[in-house]
Design a protein that fits this description.
Layout: E1 10-15, H1 21-33, H2 47-53, E2 60-63, H3 83-92, H4 98-105, H5 116-126, E3 136-141, H6 148-159, E4 165-171, H7 179-182, E5 186-190, H8 195-204, H9 210-219, H10 224-232, H11 234-252, H12 256-267, H13 272-293, H14 304-316, H15 321-337, H16 342-356
Parallel strand pairs: 1-4, 1-5, 2-3, 3-4
């Protein structure tokens, strides 16, 4: 696309969280503006490449979910206020997870959003001439967090942008992106890595030990971001696994009180983003149970310690349990996004799972 000069004006890259859509986007923009492309890659030496490698290219603008922060005191938070923290995070680890962004920005426990002020910022920036006489680019990370008012203000420029201008949207949930934006983009799926590819990347690119890399490659669903987070957050992984095991134990023994106790532990997780992260974790667990039920354990994302648990649960659970429970978890995430009381959300989730196990 770049070599032919026939570049789509709006592209949406969708991925499982932490699978590399953002670094791919940054590499694409760098290649577009590189003065001395070599063998299908940017040179890394021209001024444009050096600026892009530090995320300070004057014609590339970043938009991401924000909220009021304990780190930066602004009345109306917008992405521009947090650009320094954004650059630090991306340069340190471009495969970061949503919860890591919120922690970096100091907005843990809140929902990030992309409001109309961001749309005004984009329109102002794109009204100016290109500084480097190359492509102007807008990178929006998680467009599903954009409200309807902001999307409506951007519709015309996304559909008919100025010459040599590209919009790059990176999403984890394409189904939640407003249809008015989604329909104006060319979509690309960024696939998870194969287990051996992920293991090799963790060893070669991030300097991880072979044993840790092998274990994380087995349980991270092909996501570099999830693998790196797991290596640094084994305590959190263990806590999530214990809650899920307590839930399944209560379901298997038809102990409603134990199930409700597990629901209390879910609601006690100390931020909404972490509660949503637990739901994603539980969804992966349900996928593994389903694969064991289908006699396909080799496809399960599983370490040796968990394999016996998945196998035992698969034998006890109803054959439709995983599918129905995953729908219930998706609903729980939706309710959390709408600020429903977590205690009510998880109590209802646990009760419904008790009925279908």
């Amino acid at each position: 696309m770049a070599d032919s000069g026939r570049v789509s004006h709006a592209m949406l890259l969708y991925e499982n969280e932490g699978c590399g859509a953002l670094p791919l986007t940054l590499a694409f923009i760098q290649y577009l503006n590189c003065r001395n492309r070599k063998d299908g890659d940017s040179c890394g030496e021209c001024q444009s490449c050096r600026q892009m490698s530090k995320l300070v290219h004057p014609d590339t603008h970043f938009i991401f979910p924000v909220n009021s922060s304990r780190k930066i005191d602004v009345q109306k938070p917008v992405s521009e206020s947090f650009l320094g923290l954004w650059r630090e995070l991306v340069l340190d680890n471009p495969y970061f997870l949503e919860a890591e962004l919120y922690s970096k920005l100091g907005i843990e426990g809140k929902s990030g959003n992309i409001a109309i002020a961001e749309a005004k910022y984009i329109l102002d920036k794109l009204s100016l001439s290109s500084v480097e006489d190359g492509y102007k680019a807008v990178v929006m990370w998680l467009p599903e967090k954009m409200n309807a008012e902001a999307a409506n203000k951007l519709l015309k420029i996304v559909e008919e942008p100025p010459a040599r201008t590209v919009f790059m949207f990176v999403t984890h949930h394409p189904d939640r992106v407003l249809q008015t934006i989604f329909s104006r983009c060319q979509s690309f799926r960024v696939l998870p890595l194969q287990k051996d590819e992920l293991e090799r990347a963790l060893i070669d690119d991030f300097g991880k030990g072979p044993d840790d890399a092998s274990m994380q490659a087995a349980v991270s669903g092909g996501s570099i971001g999830v693998a790196l987070d797991g290596m640094g957050e084994r305590e959190e992984y263990s806590a999530y696994m214990q809650i899920f095991k307590d839930l399944i134990s209560g379901l298997a023994f038809r102990d409603l009180q134990a199930v409700l106790d597990a629901a209390d532990m879910m609601s006690a997780i100390d931020s909404k983003e972490k509660q949503k992260a637990f739901c994603i974790f539980a969804g992966e667990c349900l996928r593994n149970i389903f694969l064991f039920q289908q006699k396909m354990p080799d496809l399960a994302v599983s370490g040796r310690e968990e394999a016996a648990f998945w196998s035992g649960t698969a034998a006890k659970a109803n054959k439709t349990f995983s599918r129905k429970a995953l729908a219930l978890i998706d609903r729980a995430v939706m309710l959390l996004d709408r600020n429903v009381n977590p205690k009510m959300v998880f109590c209802d989730l646990a009760g419904q799972m008790f009925l279908i196990f």
